[in-house]
Structure formats: structure tokens, C-alpha cells
Design a protein that fits this description.
The protein has two domains: 55 residues; 211 residues, MetI-like (MetI-like fold), CATH 1.10.3720. The chain is built from 16 helices and no strands. By secondary structure, the chain is mainly α.
């Protein structure tokens, strides 16, 4: 008997178990689900590079026509609409409101997580009750305030409302800061540090992962915001990117029907920053799912 036969006979054969078949089926289902989830992105990219003549055929082509791919839809869209200005408006709104939400939300979260004062729990649960209210019911009073301040169709109307991040930002940071050690805060107080110094030098560095989660969610939410920018703006120059792209197919707003290829090109430009944010910060997305379960 050769050494090869001895080595092969000494290795036990792996027996298939029921768990193995379950895992295979689970992988197949997850793969199909991932393909279905990614198909709209593929379809958007494909249609943004193909000429409009190929987009009106039936049945539609699943695979792209590689010989007809071009950047004509992107160049036509940029020539007809102020897309760079819309992009700038969206980026400005997302950055300013995200920075404000991280700052004010972290301060409020620290207050409700680590400071003790009369009525703290009553105030906190009263604010939490606000989350039960649909956000749309606040649009009319907020719009009336914007009109009274003469902020309609200005950057103030886009930036100021929601700059604190709302109750959700406070709640997210409170849940995260409850897990931070209180002993560090007490030691800083013994050394004579004030509350803001404690927050800036002790809490903020430890709460950086929670701030990153809040910043990502706020940036995505503000970037994709549609209803409020639509309500408080009226001119094409003040539109944000989601609002501008949403009105591309409206002849009343654009004066003509925008071809589907240009709409897909605009959607690709709007989705690209969010895809980049997710690819680079996906671990913070997963962390954000578990923050609400942290107990102090």
C-alpha cells in the first residue's frame, strides 16, 4: 500500500448533515435577494448610458448594448438643467444640518444620560412621545413660521429647520452615552472641570463612534430629503438635487418632458454619493443597528 493510499484512507469522510443543506439553501436565498436588491441600481446605470431610442423598445433588454453606450444623457442633462447648483444645495444642506445634529444631539444626549436634574425623566419621555407624531403634521406650522420670518425660498429655510437633529438624534446619543463609564466624569469634576469641558475632553472622544453613526444617518436623510425642500423653495436655483430630479419628468416645471435616459443619469448622480458613503462607512451602519439596545 502506498503512502498516498495510507494518507487518503486515514482521513475520515465528512458526512452531510441537515444543517449543511439548510446553509446551502440559506446562501441561495441570500444570493437571490442580493441580486434583486442590486438590480434597480444596475438598471439605473444601464439606462443612464444607453440612448433613449433603446429604452422604449419592448421587451426591454436586460443586458446593455455595449456598442451604443455613451455619456450623451449626462451631457444633455448638464446642458439643460443647473445640476451642479442642485448638487451644491444638497451638499450644503446635508453638511450643515448633519454638523448641527451631531453637536446639539450629542449635548442633549449627554444631558439626559449623565446629568441629574429635577424632572429629567418626565422631560425625556415627553420628548419621546413626540416621536409618535407623524412628521407631516408639523409641515404647515413650520411653513407658516418660515413665511412669517420672510425666509421662503432662501437657504435659511433649508438649513435652520431640523438643524438640531430632532428628538431622534438626542435619543440615539443618549443610548450610546449611557454605556460610557460615569467614573471618568466624576474624576473630571473632582479636578475642577466644568460640564462643557467634561463633554469636550472626556465624553466627545469616547462617543466618537456614536457620533459617526448619527452623522451618517443624518447625512443620508438630509441628502435624500424631498418634501421640505419642495415646500419652501419655488425657483429652480434653490432646488436641491432630489427635488430637481423629481421634477424632471414634470412638463409644468421643466417646460418639456425629460427623456428617461436623462432622468436615469440624474438619479445616478444623486445616488453615487450615498453609495460611496455606505461602502466606506458600512461598519458604522451595522453598529447603528445595535446602539438602541445598549443599556447603561
Amino acid at each position: 500500500m502506498t503512502a498516498k493510499d495510507l494518507s487518503s484512507s486515514s482521513l475520515p469522510r465528512r458526512q452531510w448533515r441537515g444543517e449543511d443543506f439548510v446553509n446551502i439553501i440559506a446562501y441561495i436565498i441570500l444570493t437571490l435577494w442580493a441580486l434583486l436588491a442590486l438590480f434597480p441600481i444596475y438598471w439605473m446605470l444601464k439606462n443612464s448610458f444607453e440612448p433613449n431610442q433603446l429604452l422604449n423598445v419592448w421587451p426591454p433588454r436586460i443586458l446593455p448594448n455595449w456598442e451604443r453606450l455613451s455619456l450623451d444623457n449626462y451631457s444633455a442633462l448638464l446642458a439643460r438643467f443647473p445640476l451642479p447648483l442642485w448638487f451644491f444645495n444638497s451638499l450644503l444642506v446635508a453638511l450643515v444640518r448633519t454638523i448641527g445634529a451631531v453637536f446639539f444631539g450629542s449635548l442633549a444626549g449627554y444631558t439626559f444620560a449623565k446629568l441629574y436634574f429635577f424632572g429629567r425623566e418626565v422631560i425625556f419621555w415627553t420628548l419621546m412621545a413626540v416621536l409618535m407624531l407623524p412628521g407631516f403634521i408639523l409641515i404647515i406650522p413650520q411653513y407658516q413660521i418660515i413665511r412669517a420670518l420672510d425666509w421662503y425660498n432662501t437657504y435659511w429655510a433649508l438649513l435652520v429647520p431640523g438643524i438640531t437633529g430632532g428628538v431622534w438624534a438626542m435619543f440615539l446619543m443618549r443610548q450610546f452615552m449611557r454605556s460610557l463609564p460615569t467614573e471618568l466624569i466624576e474624576s473630571a469634576r473632582i479636578d475642577g472641570a466644568g460640564e462643557f469641558a467634561i463633554f469636550a475632553r472626556v465624553i466627545a472622544p469616547l462617543a466618537a463612534p456614536g457620533m459617526a453613526v448619527l452623522a451618517i444617518f443624518q447625512f443620508i436623510g438630509n441628502w435624500n430629503s424631498f418634501i421640505w425642500p419642495l415646500v419652501v423653495t419655488s425657483t429652480k436655483e434653490m432646488r436641491t438635487l432630489p427635488v430637481g430630479l423629481g421634477l424632471l419628468s414634470s412638463p409644468k416645471d421643466t417646460g418639456q418632458v425629460t427623456p428617461i435616459g436623462e432622468v436615469m443619469a440624474g438619479a445616478t448622480i444623486a445616488a453615487l454619493p450615498m453609495i460611496i458613503v455606505f461602502l466606506f462607512f458600512q461598519r458604522y451602519f451595522l453598529r447603528g443597528i445595535t446602539i438602541g439596545a445598549i443599556k447603561g
